[in-house]
């Protein structure tokens, strides 16, 4: 279940890329399949161990082209252990809404991106997220949960201004290249969960909705045409994720 459109990002075989806050690795795996030199970065050592194991399994199964490379790195988003301009592409998906010092993280993402490189940042979309917060405080009050709801204007402003240090000094300005929305079927699923209890996975409506989403993810596109078309129609209106694309000036 991908949120980022890698064609729109401009990903090419041989690009050095970072998936910052990779989690279980969904975007890192796809970039590896496309022939990139991937670094899966996260602060969760257990998640990273699983990602590394799957990287190995993908290579062994012949799922990646010759020359593609993949590795993991543990650390914090507030101080990325990489050189300035090290990456051709940067992906940061569903991460910034968890970080108090988001402008510091944004400055770091920009710092490690080479001039002319591209970046995709995804966060929960404002309207679906507001509804979840209103329906259930436990949706966002969990440890490590969401601490803010972004509007597109706020996040675009923070990134295009390069973030701002504590002293107000601006960072490297970025060029905003457009936005998209994804996961239109997931917004109503989370509204239902928030309404009946986020942890109430045995509720019949939740279970039925979850089965549909899993079926859609696991089936090949030809078998899930109806759900894919439904999601495509819903994305502009209630897509749960907002995807922003940027380019670093040459």
From TrEMBL:
Q: Keyword annotations for this protein?
A: Methyltransferase, Transferase
Q: Which GO terms describe its molecular function?
A: S-adenosylmethionine-dependent methyltransferase activity
| Gene3D superfamilies in the record | Vaccinia Virus protein VP39
Q: Among its keywords, does the record have rRNA processing?
A: no
Q: Which InterPro entries match?
A: Methyltransf_11, SAM-dependent_MTases_sf
This chain belongs to which protein, by name?
A: Class I SAM-dependent methyltransferase
Q: Specify the Methyltransferase type domain's residue ranges.
A: 19-121
Example GO BP:
methylation
| Pfam families, per the entry | Methyltransf_11
The superkingdom listed in its UniProt entry is Bacteria
